Amino acid sequence: MGFYEGWLFPRVLDLVMQQKQMVPFRERIGKAASGRVLDIGIGSGLNLPFYGPQADHVCGVDPSAELLRFAEQRAHKAQVPVELLRGTAEALPLDKASIDTVVMTFTLCTVDDAARTLAEIRRVLKPAGVLLFAEHGRAPEIAVARWQDRLTPIWKRVAGGCRLNRKPDDLMQSAGFRIESLETGYLRAPRAMGFVYSGSARPG
Questions:
Q1: Residue spans of alpha helices (H) in the chain
Q2: Does residue 154 contact residue 182 with C-beta atoms inside 8 Å?
Q3: d(C-alpha 82, C-alpha 151), whole Å
Q4: Per DSSP, what are the bridge partners of residue 18?
Q5: pTM
Q6: How far is CA 134 from CA 19, 77, 143, 191, 196, in A?
Q7: What span, in angstroms and rounded, lies between the C-alpha atoms of 99 and 126?
Q8: What is the spatial distance between Cα 29 and Cα 43, in angstroms, rounded to a whole number?
Q9: CB proximity list for 52: less than 8 A, separation 6 or greater
Q10: Which residues contact 150 (CB under 8 A, 6 or more apart)?
Q11: Which of helix, strand or coil describes residue 65?
Q12: DSSP states of 121-172 as a string?
C-alpha cells in the first residue's frame, strides 16, 4: 500500500465525511441503533458520538488500520462500549445471528463485492435484526446516471474504491432484505456524487 492509500487518503476521507450535511443521517441512525450494534466500514468513527444508551455495545469493522486509529480516539469519548476490529465486509469476524442492528453509512459503494457483503450482514443479523443505512448511489435521472457510469472507473481509483453507480436498495432486495423505509435526495455536491439513499431494511 502506497503513501496515498495508506496515509493521505484516510485523512482526506476523514475530513470529507465530517461535512455538516451528513450529520442528520448519523443522528437518525445513532438514535435508532439498539442492542448489540455492528458499524460496518466504521472508518474514522464519525458515527460514534451519535450512539445513545439504547445501544449496549458497538463493534466497528474496517479494513484500514489508519482509519481505525482515528476511530480509536473517538471511541474513548463514546457513550457506549466500543470494540474495533480490522477486517473486510465480505468476511465479517463475527458469529452468526449475533447482532441486533447493523449500521452502514457510505460504505456499500466501496466494498469489492456488494452481494457478498450483504450476505454477510444477513448472516450476522439476528432474525429480528435491522439494517440502518445511508448510502450514496445511482441517481434516478438518466443523464446523471450516465455520468456516474462514465466517472466510476476513474473515481474508484482515487476515492478508495467508491462506485458512484451502485443502487443500494436494489442490491439489498436482491440479497433478501425487505426495505422498511427509504428516503432519497441530493446532497449539496456534484449531482453525480451526491444522490443518497437513507432508511432501514430487515431480513426477508
A1: 3, 9-16, 23-32, 65-75, 114-124, 142-158, 168-174
A2: no
A3: 37
A4: none
A5: 0.93
A6: 14, 23, 23, 16, 7
A7: 6
A8: 16
A9: 30, 31, 79, 80
A10: none
A11: helix
A12: HHHHEEEEEEEEEEEE---SSHHHHHHHHHHHHHHHHHTTT--TT--HHHHH
Q: Give the Cα-Cα-Cα angle 54, 82, 35 (nearest 5 degrees).
A: 30
For residue range 50-93, what is the model confidence (pLDDT) as tens digits? 999 999 999 999 999 999 999 999 999 999 999 999 999 999 99
pLDDT in tens, 40-53: 999 999 999 999 99
- How far is it, in rounded angstroms, from Cα 204 to Cα 193? 30
Residues 6+ apart with CB under 8 A from 192: 139, 144, 147, 148, 151, 164
N-terminal to C-terminal alpha carbon distance within the chain: 39
Question: Scanning the structure block, which residue is given the C-alpha cell 448489540?
Answer: 36
Question: Does the structure show a pLDDT above 90 at 170?
Answer: yes
* Helix (H/G/I), strand (E/B), else coil: 109: coil
Taking residue 53's Cβ as centre, other Cβ atoms within 10 Å add up to 8
The 8 Å CB, 24+ separation contacts for 73-80 are 73/45, 74/44, 74/45, 74/46, 74/48, 74/49, 75/45, 75/48, 77/48, 77/49, 78/48, 78/49, 78/51, 79/51, 79/52, 79/53, 80/51, 80/52, 80/53, 80/55, 80/56
Q: Scan for cell 466504521, then name that residue.
A: 42
Return the pLDDT at 89: 96
